[in-house]
Sequence to fold (398 residues):
Amino acid sequence: MDRRRPTTESTGAPAHNGAIPPSIPSLHLDRDFVAQTSVGERLAQLEEQIVTAVKRDLCFDHFEIRLQSPGSQRLELVISENLSPMRIGESISACETGNGISGWVAATGQSYLCGDVRSDALYREGLDNALSSLTVPLLVHEQIIGVFNIESNTVDAFTEADQMLAEKYAAVIASALHVLDLLVVERSSTYQQVTRSMSSELERPITELQALAAAIVREGDTTTATRLQQIVADMTNRISACAAGPRSIIDAEHELHAIEPDVALTGLRVLVVDDEARLLTEVTAVLEKLGCVVMPCANGGEAFFALDHVHDHEGFSMVLSDIRLPDASGYEVFSKTREIMPDVPVILMTGFGYDPDHTIVRASADGVQGILLKPFRTSQLIEAIRHALHIEPSGRTT
Fold:
């Protein structure tokens, strides 16, 4: 991959001089650790193992790992060691042209050994000061899931033996990351399956309650019937919200009626970023009920524009952003906010704890004020906001 600049003075050349170690190191996630930790914590442990093994056993100092985002061609940064990040808004996709060496490798599934980036046709001129690179695909059952890229600031630093070694270790990395991804998918699928089963089991009693409400109306007790109908509607809406999973607030429709303006939050300007229309609408509605002034954004581009023009208005008091956006990552939104408004708190939102871009780990290390796991309740949203703003609990928010 040809887009990064080594940040240390070492050459990044492998110390084993082409000699393949007797065995490829393995990566291990303890079963009890997996059962008791979040996806972010598992990724942190796995990252530590990968970085240690690559530097100790493979003797590569400058490298990064990118995974292809599900449903798109975008290559998301998961692990980076001694390589500077791309600028805000830049991205790499799995494409043979226009996306550098990593894009070509991710699109073709073939390794690429570049002896001198200065004369390489795939090199994107001006984006990298590295002089040579080695990029191999991450494959799971012949499916390309990402790339493993190593760089050096010396010419011809890598050999075919290095390529063989990198390809073997890439298989280990791909397998470990794939297992983590399966755990997340399993959690999501199980959640949705349980919700569908619950909805099916409740369908009959809900129908009976609706019939009972109609009978009460015929008897003239409209007050009781109306209340019963409201209860049935609330049950139906909550089941629907649970089935929607990360795309909604579980109890938004019910709780919105009970929210009153909060003096401590009134007038605060909040930037909310999420590509799920329903969730964006619900979060905006909750905040406006509390008295906040909300600027909703459906993608990273809109958020970056709002942040770039922050001095044209009063600025923002808080930023809430999903970590998975169609054109950016939550970490980029977090970083942009830190760059322009260092003291403004940021809360990141993620569905089922899924963190393919390693946003939670990186942002937590950099001081993000809160993480909300979707789907969440209205009370959890309000509590996270008040905590991030250091506002004491108040009975006036719900």
Q: What stands out?
A: The chain has three domains: 31-186, 188-247, 258-388. The two ends are 51 Å apart (CA to CA). DSSP finds eleven helices and ten strands in the chain.
